[in-house]
Amino acid sequence: MFISIPILFTLDSLFPLNLPENNKLFARVVVDENNRPLRSFADKNGIWRYPIKLHQVSPLYIEALINYEDRWFWHHPGINPLSLLRAAIQNVTNNKIVSGGSTLSMQVARILHPHKRSLWGKSKQLLRTLQLEWQLDKKQILQIYLNTAPFGGTIEGVQAASFTYLNKSAQELTHAEAALLAVLPQAPTRYRPDLHAQAAQNARNKVLQRLVDFDVWRQDIVDDALLEQVFSFNYRPKQLAPLLARRLLNHSNGQSVVKSTIDSDLQLALQDSLTSYMTGLPKQSSAAILVVENKSSAVKAYIGTADFANVQRHGYVDMVQAIRSPGSTLKPFIYGLALDEGLIHSQSLLADVPRSWGDYRPSNFNGAFNGPVAAADALQRSLNMPAVDLLERYGVNRFVAQLENAGLTLSIPGGKPNLAIILGGAGTSLEQLVESYSAFANQGKVSQLRFLQKELMQDKQTRNLLSPESAWVIQELLAGIERPGSIDTFASSLQEGNMAWKTGTSYGFRDSWAIGVTKEYTLGVWLGRPDGTAMPGHYGSVSAGPLLFNVADRLNLSAQQITKPDKVTKETICWPLGTRKSENRVSDCQVEHQAWIIDDTVPPTWHTSDVDAWQSGLFTFWSNPQSKLRVSMDCSMLPKKVNSVAVWPKVLEPWIKIKHRRFKLIPMLDPQCASPDIASSATLKITGIEEGSIYRKSGNKGKTPSVWLKSIGGLGTHNWYINGKHSYQIKPNQAKEHLLSTIGKQQIIVQDQQGNSDMVTLYVE
């Protein structure tokens, strides 16, 4: 006996068992938050095996398996002589193989070390079985069987079979399902429920009856189980979140099961919805959807492509991670940072007028200017000029650094930040945008998105982007944007105003974006062509916006609103000064607004440090008490009276009501005591074009109508803007002919070097 043990140890070391952990038998699978497969990756031999622990398998399956296959499994040493003898007698008597005498341990030995059907092969199986029983306990052997037993085709293991044929975990099996999977390995091809449903059902019923005969299950339970029909399933490997699964697998450190945070029910619903939506878009286009739970930063849905298997749509490209131009989606951040800096409040007076910053002359998306706009209105309408102006005042380098510190790194052509980034002149990804937008629901804080369940066990690391106050104000403003028409007529569960959202469109209609924020979720969509070519006619509000609300409608959002911080209050303010109504004279409060203010601070309309074109505020002058006309301070006429009046920025003159313009508010010079030094402005006027004029061709073959661009007054070179686009630069007292080749409304603006401007609108038919 003492001699045999060393020999056994030597043989065991020379011929080790081919255990699963040694040869990595398992396929690799990425699962959702409830451990349901999202996507599976076969092993090197193309076999699908999903690892599962013994305690994770339904006890019903264990009962059915043990009592049908090997009743004495827990007691025999791996080999059951009585079973072998019985099988031998039956096979000889019938002159064919009627039954096998293999125990579960013997079946595991054959799986680990396949052999030919011969006496020598059977002998090797018996030796390997004894070796198996010597090295492992019964539970370990049973667990190997659960993970490696053949279930038809390339499917091995009960967990893989359960998901394949029943679309559920082996932990959730019914009595009938447990019996079906218990018998399936006996004849994996003949009993496959997706190919031979009736044969599978007959075999299952045989197992059920035997369990009654052995008093394992009651007759009434089996009677109910017999009523369940075995359906012919069409198996197709899971392809939910295929791009995310591939991404997570590449960072899984060889794990067989990668547990993600995805909600597969939501993922499937959004994937089906997107497939339907894409039927109305060009064939070469794609889309991406990302849904994040704000509280945990867990990603709940991740669709990186519209059609993973479609080459025309570049389905293999993950557009959640792709770097693209964000269009106007960065604008909320500059408004939020400007609030924190004390530059504006929600109703600050901004100017949507022609402006240039060196050689940079942006225009609005709709090709027109709107004059005086509130900060809230400018953000909600996504006007370009106020956003660029805000960025210049805040500091472009500072803005880029603040975003980067919070985790949003911009890819900037040439590497040097410039004003164009606020309109999409940089690159970022849907992932980074959604992560950053979550700050509007998380008191201004950003935390890295979480894709794995194990990450949820770690402390959440946050970075500051905005204050809680400015974050709330911005989301409140974005929640005021009207919802577009829903894709589905029944999708009406989302209450109006419950989601703050912003769209964006990159230059040349290459990218359409929509990002939304609620108390519970931050979600984003992207539409476009992965190859970067244009999609004319498709932009954020008409293409991405409806899809965003389609996604939101499937989230079952609550009616809860994001809590307003105590330091945010409402205040009545007056234009043009932008300060509290209580601090203004009645005559100076020309327009009233209800503004959100932070920490009881009301920044006035800019006027102290701006160029002459922006000069506004209280205009102080001396007047003749008798004539009410303006005089110079050193005028010898006595007595003189000092007066002041609130004036608007010069650049806004063409857009404001006539009664609020400077020539109406500031008296003319008294000819008895005038000085050229007190001229309020050099007036600028378009001549030769009447407001509201209609132009048309003189017949079908007539010439295209034209107008002569002429103006009087002003200082320096005159810049002309046609429908928001800088078109001409003309010297004083000169004119330029402009062809009216575009049908419809035409907005014509002239502006001098001091910001004086004038505007006319005409119509071309």
From TrEMBL:
<keyword id="KW-0511">Multifunctional enzyme</keyword>
<dbReference type="InterPro" id="IPR011815">
    <property type="entry name" value="PBP_1c"/>
</dbReference>
<feature type="domain" description="Glycosyl transferase family 51">
    <location>
        <begin position="45"/>
        <end position="211"/>
    </location>
</feature>
<dbReference type="InterPro" id="IPR009647">
    <property type="entry name" value="PBP_C"/>
</dbReference>
<protein>
    <recommendedName>
        <fullName>peptidoglycan glycosyltransferase</fullName>
        <ecNumber>2.4.99.28</ecNumber>
    </recommendedName>
</protein>
<keyword id="KW-0378">Hydrolase</keyword>
<dbReference type="InterPro" id="IPR001264">
    <property type="entry name" value="Glyco_trans_51"/>
</dbReference>
<dbReference type="Pfam" id="PF00905">
    <property type="entry name" value="Transpeptidase"/>
</dbReference>
<dbReference type="GO" id="GO:0030288">
    <property type="term" value="C:outer membrane-bounded periplasmic space"/>
</dbReference>
<keyword id="KW-0121">Carboxypeptidase</keyword>
<dbReference type="InterPro" id="IPR001460">
    <property type="entry name" value="PCN-bd_Tpept"/>
</dbReference>
<dbReference type="InterPro" id="IPR012338">
    <property type="entry name" value="Beta-lactam/transpept-like"/>
</dbReference>
<dbReference type="GO" id="GO:0008658">
    <property type="term" value="F:penicillin binding"/>
</dbReference>
<dbReference type="GO" id="GO:0008955">
    <property type="term" value="F:peptidoglycan glycosyltransferase activity"/>
</dbReference>
<dbReference type="InterPro" id="IPR036950">
    <property type="entry name" value="PBP_transglycosylase"/>
</dbReference>
<comment type="pathway">
    <text>Cell wall biogenesis; peptidoglycan biosynthesis.</text>
</comment>
<dbReference type="Pfam" id="PF00912">
    <property type="entry name" value="Transgly"/>
</dbReference>
<dbReference type="GO" id="GO:0006508">
    <property type="term" value="P:proteolysis"/>
</dbReference>
<dbReference type="InterPro" id="IPR050396">
    <property type="entry name" value="Glycosyltr_51/Transpeptidase"/>
</dbReference>
<dbReference type="GO" id="GO:0004180">
    <property type="term" value="F:carboxypeptidase activity"/>
</dbReference>
<feature type="domain" description="Penicillin-binding protein transpeptidase">
    <location>
        <begin position="288"/>
        <end position="519"/>
    </location>
</feature>
<dbReference type="GO" id="GO:0009252">
    <property type="term" value="P:peptidoglycan biosynthetic process"/>
</dbReference>
<dbReference type="InterPro" id="IPR023346">
    <property type="entry name" value="Lysozyme-like_dom_sf"/>
</dbReference>
<comment type="similarity">
    <text>In the N-terminal section; belongs to the glycosyltransferase 51 family.</text>
</comment>
<keyword id="KW-0328">Glycosyltransferase</keyword>
<dbReference type="Pfam" id="PF06832">
    <property type="entry name" value="BiPBP_C"/>
</dbReference>
<comment type="similarity">
    <text>In the C-terminal section; belongs to the transpeptidase family.</text>
</comment>
<keyword id="KW-0808">Transferase</keyword>
<keyword id="KW-0645">Protease</keyword>
<feature type="domain" description="Penicillin-binding C-terminal">
    <location>
        <begin position="680"/>
        <end position="760"/>
    </location>
</feature>
